[in-house]
Amino acid sequence: MTSLHALIADITTLKVDAIVNAANSSLLGGGGVDGAIHRAAGPGLLAECRLLGGCRTGSAKLTGGHDLPARHVIHTVGPVWQGGRHGEAELLAACYRNSLEQAEAHRLHSIAFPCISTGVYGYPADEAAVIAVRTVRGFVDAGCTLTDVLFCCFSETNLALYQALLNGPPDPAANERSR
Ligand code: ADP
To answer: Residue with the nearest Cα to atom 6 of ligand 1?
Structure first.
């Protein structure tokens, strides 16, 4: 059984098996949560990322946590919002699903997600939260090694969106674990 929680925190402070980074496709650092993770993890993270050869939008790659309290970082690249008709929803769902696949492949128990794509990449926060919760629920309901999935929000607005979704009625679209 996996429990899903939302909280407000700086994701770099969380002591979990993996934090997810909303990275860019170079995996060589950037602004927002990406910059915060690289600053807190130290130069070892960048050195490890240089070996990965980048990452496609929707994919996910795992590294060590270096100086972070988290043991691992799962780097995923969210879609840039372009109005919603360019496959953004599928790509955002793929970010969550592929990050969870990485966690499962490494038999991790706890993972924390930031609100992927909702900063500089401009994805509407409410639509992104629906996709995040739906995709995670669909994945964990099929059974996995994870016991805790945290939605790490950076604003009260995002926290309220996630709490409404997590406490609300089940989403009928959540029962598909599409791979
Ligand atoms: P993207 O380019 O995918 O939009 P951003 O880093 O710009 O990524 O923003 C993604 C989300 O991460 C935003 O909701 C932003 O408020 C949030 N965020 C920024 N810094 C942190 C942090 N240290 N911990 C958790 N969330 C953060």
So the answer is: 32
